[in-house]
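[09:14] KT: can someone run the structure on this one? pasting the chain below
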Amino acid sequence: MEDNNTEHTVVIGAGQAGIQVADSLRTEGYTGAITILNDEPVLPYQRPPLSKDYLNVDSPAAPLPLRGPDFFTAKDITLHASAATAVDAEARNISLADGTTLGYTHLVFATGAANRPLPCPGATLEGVHALRTLLDAENLEAALSTARRVVVIGAGFIGLEFAAAARARGLEVTVLEFAPRPMGRALSATASEWFAARHRADGIDLRLGEGVAAIHRDGTGLRVQSTTGAGYPADLVLYGVGVVPRTELAEAAGLATDNGILVDSNLRTEVAGVLAVGDCASFPNAHTGTRTRLESVQNATDHGRHAARSIMGQQADYAEVPWFWSTQGSIRLQIAGISDPRDEPVVLGDPSGGKFSIALLRDGVLAAVESVNSPADHIAARRLVGRGITLDAEALADPGFSLKALAKAGIPIPA
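[09:31] RB: done, structure tokens below
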């Protein structure tokens, strides 16, 4: 590796993953120049609270910064407020929207993901919102202040987080989900059924197996026509039907993509000097044996740390256990590991009390744990999942069983 003082690492994207790359490079002793390209006109901020705390009626509507105000100066990191428009991987330079060109030694794509468009007539009408950026959240906050009836399209994390926040404001909330259960891509059927019942008990009209066919202007409001032919009046419509990785720039530069920018276990692409991290990266998953693209803060930050070490010349396979969370009203969902529909669910605790976990066994091995308002279980699960621990379903179901106790019983825990 050449002298750090002659190097320049450029990070495209100022989200969680991109900021972590730069921060970890300095922690690892990198002395070269670091530039982060920020395509939003605000300082880097945390995205997860936009669908949770930011929209709560009792919370101040202010973005939470990813780092403090003095971070970039203290770490000698340049935050360049411009988007990248083209990458010449052979010449190792980047063209920017402001007309400048940057050369690089190392380039990190941290371009994240974009909302999947809503594929129906009326999707672009005024009053139809997506939620991804601070500007989206500000527009929603303003719309919520005068709305009475809300229709949410999609019962994933974002849709249900927003639905719970809107319901807490006393609004009428209808959620349309084409799939047969909520959060079906992320949760076991057991957990999905509990969440469906809980949200309905909280007054949300959750309609499963019912998608959207069209959105129409109806007087001063909107009317959402569902795939069943039913119509739902709304002052505000929010859709959350998944995301797509932002790979256009990488593809134009000649990088291989397939539901994300393809990287190896060191998060390097096949093009020399170029890496990809976070939501935009498809990486070899050490726990599933397949390629994976994850959308989570944990994956973004852990990718950022690993990419920095990779740039510094360290060779190690990325093998962090994935974990996720979602706050839906008073419900705190935390997941360790990645479940599969074929996994055997074992309920730990009493779901009727609103505090329990579901252990998911794959051929007898603990593959994932879903925890509801049970942070101690989640912390223990993060230590246990991925260890190849064989467990007996009957023993797990015993009222005296404790994940926390199991995690303390001599199971090796990474530093």
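[09:33] KT: thanks! The mean pLDDT is 94.
[09:34] RB: yep, looked fine to me
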